[in-house]
Design brief:
This protein is of the alpha/beta class. The protein is about 50% helix and about 15% strand. The protein has a 6-stranded mixed sheet, sandwiched between helices. Helix 3 runs antiparallel to helix 4.
Length: about 160
């Protein structure tokens, strides 16, 4: 498993959680953004800078991610692509996108886009909170724990064969 981050809009506190997790577990973490990012020195953490433009970072992640990878993004169309390709998609506020909820999320996004294009002021998301940070950390921990248990089980089966 590799972790990909749609890093342009990802809160710094979430990046810090991801840096610690990558180093603690030895998981590859790649942050994709259209501007230079500061990262701690680590053999597990890297950045990829893409040109500025609409969906350039999203397209890079979608092209590079593999089945089983985890993508951190608030971009619902990217999350849908990740799920379609067999990956896991986690919102920086801790919401896990799944096959069961992605269509509803896409529908709501389209509806809000229509309202905005019609001149309705919809406002933005609420400020990022401590409970958002905690929800993200908890969901990330569940995903990584499940992944490492699956890897351990596969290794045990291989040794027994």
């Amino acid at each position: 498993m590799q972790i990909w981050v749609d890093a342009d809009a990802c809160p710094n506190v979430i990046k810090e959680i991801l840096f610690r997790a990558a180093d603690r577990l030895g998981v590859a973490l790649t942050l994709v953004a259209n501007k230079p990012l500061r990262i701690p020195p680590s053999p597990h953490i890297r950045t990829v800078q893409v040109p500025a433009g609409c969906d350039v970072a999203d397209n890079k992640i979608a092209a590079e991610m593999q089945s089983g990878d985890l993508v951190i993004t608030a971009d619902i169309p990217l999350a849908a692509t990740v799920i379609e390709r067999g990956g896991h998609a986690l919102d920086p506020r801790g919401g896990l996108y799944t096959r069961d909820n992605i269509e509803e999320s896409l529908t709501m996004r389209r509806f809000m886009d229509e309202l905005r294009s019609g001149g309705v002021e919809t406002g933005g998301p609420p400020p990022f909170s401590q409970s958002d940070r905690q929800a993200f950390a908890n969901q990330l921990d569940r995903i990584l724990t499940r992944h490492h248990q699956t890897e351990s089980d596969a290794g045990n089966r291989a040794r027994q064969a």
